[in-house]
């Protein structure tokens, strides 16, 4: 199921980003960094996590831990630079990142004002060379939400791609 989901997500990314990429049914079964990206300087990897904005972190954590029996649910961690608390739900083959606003300027606060029950906020995809990925993406006129990378919840460089350039999907790229 994850391989089918990976194919769906990869095919929904803006065509300018995928220009020249050959996708076949076997691509979904390759290891995370084997997908053929036309620029040999960087490779698209696996989905790291799906981020979900939630109005109640404790209730959401309880649901994933006790109802769906996730492998593990982390303790909430403040991510001051990003204006969120994060909790990771581990399913073994992927993770869900639960997001709760931290402070009045949190982008998640705005999201929850529009989506009272919460919902999918972004998809995080791994790349093996984030700086080269950013150069290539910008050459394809895909906007980023910041000029340079920031350190994300996993302690690795991340950058977000503008959803208007990615079929309405907010995509986070994370260095692996």
Automatic annotation (TrEMBL):
<dbReference type="GO" id="GO:0005739">
    <property type="term" value="C:mitochondrion"/>
</dbReference>
<dbReference type="GO" id="GO:0046872">
    <property type="term" value="F:metal ion binding"/>
</dbReference>
<dbReference type="GO" id="GO:0046491">
    <property type="term" value="P:L-methylmalonyl-CoA metabolic process"/>
</dbReference>
<keyword id="KW-0170">Cobalt</keyword>
<feature type="domain" description="VOC">
    <location>
        <begin position="46"/>
        <end position="176"/>
    </location>
</feature>
<protein>
    <recommendedName>
        <fullName>Methylmalonyl-CoA epimerase, mitochondrial</fullName>
        <ecNumber>5.1.99.1</ecNumber>
    </recommendedName>
</protein>
<dbReference type="Pfam" id="PF13669">
    <property type="entry name" value="Glyoxalase_4"/>
</dbReference>
<comment type="function">
    <text>Methylmalonyl-CoA epimerase involved in propionyl-CoA metabolism.</text>
</comment>
<dbReference type="InterPro" id="IPR051785">
    <property type="entry name" value="MMCE/EMCE_epimerase"/>
</dbReference>
<dbReference type="GO" id="GO:0004493">
    <property type="term" value="F:methylmalonyl-CoA epimerase activity"/>
</dbReference>
<comment type="similarity">
    <text>Belongs to the methylmalonyl-CoA epimerase family.</text>
</comment>
<dbReference type="InterPro" id="IPR037523">
    <property type="entry name" value="VOC_core"/>
</dbReference>
<dbReference type="InterPro" id="IPR017515">
    <property type="entry name" value="MeMalonyl-CoA_epimerase"/>
</dbReference>
<keyword id="KW-0413">Isomerase</keyword>
<keyword id="KW-0479">Metal-binding</keyword>
<dbReference type="InterPro" id="IPR029068">
    <property type="entry name" value="Glyas_Bleomycin-R_OHBP_Dase"/>
</dbReference>
